[in-house]
Amino acid sequence: MSRHCTTVVGIKLSLRVGPGSARTILDRTVSGRAFRLSFAIGPTLLRKLPLWFLIVSILTTASITSVVFVLPNFLHAKPDIALTSFPSSPTTLAAEPGRGGVASFTLNVRTVNNFTGIVSARIVGPPLGMSAYFDGSQALNPDAIPMGHSENVTVDLTASVSGNFTLTIDFTSGTLIRSISVPIISQGLGVDFNPSPLTISKGSSANTVVTLQSQNGLSGNVTIDTIPNPPPGVSPMAFSPKVVMLPRGGTVQMTLTIQTFSSASSGSATQYFASEIYGSVIAYRSDSFNYVVQ
Distance (Å, rounded) from C-alpha 200 to C-alpha 49? Predict the structure, then answer.
C-alpha cells in the first residue's frame, strides 16, 4: 500500500491507495475541536482517476475547510477602546509671554466589543513653549481610569509662544496601546514701540508709535489698560485710539503720549494690552518700554 501526505494551512491530509477501496482523510483541530472529512472511492473509479486529480481534490477540500474554520478566528473582533477629542476642530489658545495663555479640550474614551479593564493615560512630551496636564479637579485619575461604557478626560494647556502644534496622548491597558493626536493653534500678539527708548524733556510731552501685530491668525479688538501707578514724575499715559481692530495676519498702530513733570527721571514703564473677540479676552500681554528724560 502506498501513502501520500501533504500539509496545507496546518491541515494534515492523507491519501491511502491500496487493495480494495481507497480513502482520503482530512483531519483538522480548531479551537480544541477535531474535524474529519472522509471520502470513499471504489476500486474501479480509483483505477480510472489519475493521482494528480486526487491530490488536487484534497487541496481544494483543505482550502474550503480553512475558510470555514480558520478564517473566522482571524476576523473575530477583539475588545478595544475608541478615542475622540472635543471639540473636533483644532483647539485654539492665546500665547502669553512669561505666563502662558490657557485653554482645554476633552478626550472621550469609549469601550468597544465589551472591553473591560483599567486604562492609563499619558501625555507625550508637549512641544517647547507649551505645557499640557490633566485637569486636577477631575475625580478620575488618568493613571488608572476604570472603564465603564465611556469616560471623559480633560486636558489643560498653556502656551508662551505662538505656532501650530500637535499634542499626542497615549492610552494603555496591558498590551493594548491606542493614541490620539490633537491639533493645537497658539495665537499671539506682537508689540513694538518706535522710537524706543523715547527721549523726552522734563515738563514736556512726547509720542511713541505702538505697532500691534497679529501672530498666527489672532484677530479682534485690542484694548489698552491704563497703568494704575505710573512712574514718579510721569502723568497717566494716553493712547489714541484706545481701542483698535486687529485684522487676522495684519498690523495696527496707535499713538502713546507721555507727559512728564520737572521731577521726572529716566526709567521704564509697563503697558498692558488685551485682545478680545465678542467680549471674551483671548490674548493678554504686557510690554515694557524705556524712556529717557533730559
Answer: 113
